[in-house]
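Hey all, quick one. A colleague (J.T.) asked me to put the calcium ion job into the tracker so the inputs and the structure tokens live in one place instead of scattered across chat threads. No bug as far as I know, just bookkeeping. Sequence used:
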Amino acid sequence: MGSRILVVEDETDLAELVAFNLRGAGHDVTVAHDGNTALAEIQRSQPDLLVLDVMLPDISGLEVCRRLRRKAQTVRLPVIMLTARTDEVDRVVGFEVGADDYVPKPFSPRELVLRVEAILRRTIPAADVEGPQVIALGELVIDVPAHRVEVQGEEILLTALEFRLLLDLASRAGRVQSRDVLLERVWGYSPNAETRTVDTHVKRLREKLGAGAVHIETVRGVGYRVLKS
Ligand code: CA
């Protein structure tokens, strides 16, 4: 089953090459050549995934991603960023921006297609969740099928990746999870994911959870543990 993918890149040859390869893999692809058009298109057609270049003629891809992450409707939209400069990578994967993954330019279209499919695979439909439907840890409440997280009654907007990380830890409360195990279960296939990636995401998750962050404990030299209640 193909997914609906929006490709945002102002270099038309590259945009077409990416679109061609994604269509070849069975996806339904739309192309936008600047950031504002992309934002309007996302609102209109609600794609399943975004391939987003950093360098765009109007607003940068970083800003596009930041804006998507501020809204409940798009905070979980999977985003793969195309980066041309290595100094962009830390901002993209530093999750200041909240992208799910990145592909450095130049890249092979085949590699990009593989990354897209890996991300689509790990975007689990809410209906498929097994185990408890609601996990409550004091004032931190995770409504699993709704993908909704609340701390002291206030909804916290998490990206799809942040939600899966929290859920993975919370559903194994009381047990330490190593960075390697978390990488395998939460990230799946991603050549860019390193143990540092886990730390960066946990940091970001803690910031977002505020008072709820007390439930995530760092186990020095090993990994992380969510404390029971
Ligand atoms: Ca560009």
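Adding what we noticed when we looked at it: Residues 9-11, 53, 55-56 surround calcium ion (CB under 6 Å). The two ends are 40 Å apart (CA to CA).
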